[in-house]
Description:
Layout: E1 17-18, E2 21-22, H1 26-35, H2 38-52, H3 59-72, H4 80-92, H5 99-111, H6 113-121, H7 126-130, H8 134-156
Antiparallel strand pairs: 1-2
Helix pairs in contact: 1-2, 1-3, 2-4, 3-4, 3-5, 4-5, 4-8, 6-8
Amino acid sequence: MGTVLGEMRNVPWHELQHAYGSASQVPGMLSRIAWGDGPTAEDALSDLGQWIAAPAVFDATVAAVPFLWELAATETVKDRAGVLELLAAILASGHDLHPEWTRAAHDAVVADRPTAARLAADASSPQAQTHAHARAQAQAQAVRDAAVRLLTAIDVHTCAACPPRTV
């Protein structure tokens, strides 16, 4: 098993674009989400959302989605619920001038639906079992709730760029 975000080095980020230009800084943001303390991870998640999801998606969004799924599934990530919310925001966003980016970003979110289903059903995460305090349990519940919302968004998703899905 590789390290978290181990494959990130294989993406030509400098050739991709986000809302403000070159996506060369996206790996740093993903790393801050993966290993940063709570406030650092939250700031990075907010910045990344502005770069790759709001107000539009970009080719960097498509490249980032698999890593966002990896972060959502990694127990040590501080704001897994926030990562799932960013995935939902990507699914709700598009790019009028580049419908191919929209479709590819949406397809990338939908492709890992099984991870969302697992997170939504995970009533006994190891984190919740090893930390009896209320904050850890609240975080685990926030992940489950965000996963349920994302599953619903995936299941009802329709947009002009995406073909109708069969469930």
